[in-house]
Amino acid sequence: MTSPPTALLTVNASNPNFSMGLVQPEAVLDGWPIRLSWGWNQLPVRPGRHRLRVQARAPLRAFGSADLILDAHPGQRVVVYYASPYVASFVWSQPGAIGFAPVQSSGRTAALVSRLVPAGIALLMMLVIGILVIVAMVLQ
User: Fold this and answer.
1) What angle do CA 14, 20, 25 make, to 5 degrees?
2) Terminal CA-to-CA distance of the chain, rounded, Å?
3) Contact status, residue 9 vs residue 72, Cβ threshold 8 Å
């Protein structure tokens, strides 16, 4: 008996964050959960139409989900690219990006602002404290 023909789904999952292994990609293919790793993932699939959802999983929740419908023909290799978002919090996150060509992560501006605003506030506080110390020394 011969085995049924298969196709190959290749998922390239990329993460712009330095999550130190706390965030891992995962997929749901036609309702079935699949563990992925960052980088290239090879998944044999049956020929036909498939629904793919890829997202990033943090310890407490998933974020950055992106959906794609794909058609796989016998012997075909279907390449899909996924990029998780730059920003994820407990309140909100940007969606992930997915497609048949390389994609860019969403939320880059929000990530930059979320890092620069606290740094600016800290710098301003240090400046005010420094001025207050100088004024206190002069008034003594």
Assistant:
1) 35
2) 96
3) yes
- The residue assigned the tokens 């605003």 is 117
3-state secondary structure the chain: CCCCCCEEEEEEEECCCCCCCCCEEEEEECCEEEECCCEEEEEEECCEEEEEEEEEECCCCEEEEEEEEEEECCCCEEEEEEECCCCECCCCECCCEEECCCCCCCCHHHHHHHHHHHHHHHHHHHHHHHHHHHHHHHHC
**Looking at beta carbons, which pairs linking 33-38 to residues 24 or more positions away fall under 8 Å?**
36/11, 37/13, 38/13, 38/14
Confidence (pTM): 0.73
74-133 pLDDT, tens digit per residue, is 999 999 999 998 766 555 567 899 999 999 876 555 555 566 667 778 788 888 888 888
